[in-house]
Amino acid sequence: MDTKKLRDDALAIFNAGVKAVDPVDAIKRYLKLEDGILSVENRTYDLANYKGVYIIGAGKASAAMAQPLEDILGDRIKAGAVNVKYGHAAQLKIIRVNEAGHPIPDEAGLKGTKQIIQLLQQTGDKDLVICLLSGGGSALLPCPVDELTLENKQQVTKLLLEAGATIQEINAVRKHISRIKGGQLARLVYPSTLISLILSDVVGDKLDSIASGPNVPDTSTFSDCQHILDKYSIKQKIPAAVLEHLERGASGEIKETPKADDPVFKKTQNVIIGSNILAVKAAMKKAQELKYHSLILSSFIEGETREVAKVHAAVAKEILSTGSPVPRPACVISGGETTVTIRGKGLGGRNQEFALAAAIEIDGLEDVVILCGGTDGTDGPTDAAGALADGKTVRRAIAQGLNAEFHLRENDSYHFFEPIGDLLITGPTYTNVMDLRLVLVG
């Protein structure tokens, strides 16, 4: 089994994982309409009891999720608006699509969010609101509290990202400087009936973390936000207005985000229609079809990217040496989402950095290929989903005057992989359930 076949198989396995969480298929699996009765998972809604249906949403996949809703509900939809990342729009007939910035929110996102709020002001007790949420929903639903600006929110998000904060920590802070996150969108929808259809991009599929939990009770507090700022030593760096707002909230001067006993959640249904484990299991099925002994390592992988890469490389070495934890030919699969602590000034993302760190660890090994890619088709501020590495990656790079260790120190994985043709380029996949990592040993 040569390296080319391993690389081709890795791409096929990755693509199978992504296809399994296609948003159009997911919507059609979970939502059915027959004789005016809308079935959503284990609940039914008689549309004759509602004056109108409204569609709102945010996330990289929200426009793609809206397409089958237009097909299913047709002219029952009175109006709709969704915010998507630039380049992730889809052709819709009724629902308005607004493209905006991610991962740093921008003015286009703020404008789109205000349009959603205005739309909700038209709804009442006899209306049904369907909210579509997917990865990126936090950044794509920016609406800071009145005393803060979008620039304040951008600065805080950037500082937390660069410090290596987890997505849960970033979202906790976002909730407490927002008008709609942390259950506050449900507050705006109430007293309308609310159905949330969710593609999870959060480890463990925690509803209060996905898109910062706009439609579920919030378990985080203002005090938690203060602890997060202390943990990453960025209290002195964030805007004074943000710090003052969080401190006032922690002292009880500002109302907390809605909790589980809030009446706004009495008419709300939240349904996860796609998640990382579905992609991981589909990838394993494809690997088995290709005759690999396959193992799911975990779909809960978190931590510093380059350290997680070392562990995956160590698994490859163990398979080569002892045939454990699975014999050759082997495919070990993991999911989740790692974080990168920015130290350099290069270009890349967590998946490309993972592949670069892994390439260094497996340098010189035969019959090993490692792939790491984002299921959304994008990785950091680049056009790549991730990258592939094998035992000759570092040497091929040296032949082009590239130093792997230097590029890793500079967080410059994109400019390492681009010249040697090892970037994983998929284009937007219109879904997002975190990352897939593959270790193949021939």
Structural description of this entry:
This protein is α/β, with parallel strands linked by helices and 442 residues long. It folds into 2 domains: 176 residues, 3-Layer(aba) Sandwich (glycerate kinase, domain 1), CATH 3.40.1480.10; 183 residues, Glycerate kinase, MOFRL-like N-terminal domain (Rossmann fold, 3-Layer(aba) Sandwich), CATH 3.40.50. It is 38% helix and 21% strand. The protein contains 15 helices and 15 strands. The strands form 3 sheets. The chain has a 6-stranded parallel β-sheet, sandwiched between helices. Helix 11 links the parallel strand 10 and strand 11. Helix 1 crosses helix 10, helix 5 packs antiparallel against helix 6 and helix 8 packs across helix 9. The longest helix has 18 residues. The chain is globular and about 65 Å long. The model has no long low-confidence stretch (mean pLDDT 96). One of its GO terms (molecular function) is ATP binding. It holds the Pfam family DUF4147. Keywords: ATP-binding, Kinase, Nucleotide-binding, Transferase. InterPro entries: GK-like_C_sf, GK_N_sf, MOFRL, MOFRL_assoc_dom, MOFRL_protein. One of its GO terms (cellular component) is cytoplasm.
